[in-house]
Amino acid sequence: NYHDNSTAITSHHRLIAQTDHRFKTLKAGFWGFSAGDSPSGYRVWSPLQYEGTVCVGCTVASAMFVGERVVEDLVDWINGPHREQVWGRYGFVDSVDLDSDWFAPNVLGITVGPAALAVANIEMGTSVWKDFMRIPEIARGLERASMAGLEAQGARTLGVKTATGAGEDSAKNVERARPQVF
Fold this sequence. Notes:
Layout (H helix, E strand, L loop, with lengths): L1 H18 L4 H4 L7 E2 L6 E2 L11 H5 L6 H13 L3 H4 E2 L2 E2 L3 E2 L4 E2 L5 H12 L7 H6 L2 H9 L10 H4 L8 H6 L10
Antiparallel strand pairs: 1-2, 3-4, 5-6
C-alpha cells in the first residue's frame, strides 16, 4: 500500500534525525532525505546514504503522510535560530546543511509542487486527492485496472472509499478520499 509505505518511510526519516547526532543538521531536528540542492550541487540522499544535508522542502511534501508531526517540525524550524535562513519569499528553502553552514539559495519547483499538494491534502476542504478520486474516468480506470479491491488492500488507511460502479454514479460513492493526518 503506497500510503502505508510512504508513512513508514517518512517516520523513518524523522527517526534518523532524532537519533543520529553525528551531523549538526540532524541534531538540530532537520530531516528529509531526498534529492535536492547541497553544498556540492544537486545530490540524492536516502536513509541509507546521507551526510549533513537534508531537503527541508521535501519534508513539507511529507505532510500528507504524518501531517501533525511535519507541521510541528516546520513550526519549530520557523521559530528556531535558523528562521532567517530556512524561510524565504517562497517558503522553505530547498535544503539545509548546518555542518557546512549552508542554506540553499534556491527554491526548486520540483520540490515546491509536491509540497503544495501535500499541504492541500491535509484538510478535506482543499484535498486534491478527494477531487481526483471523484473524476468518473479515474473511477472507471481504477476498476478496469482491477483496483476496485483496493479497499481490501488497505485503502481505508487513505480514507478512501473506492467506487463500486463505473461513471458518475461510482464517483459519487467516493465519500472520503484523502490521506489521514496522524
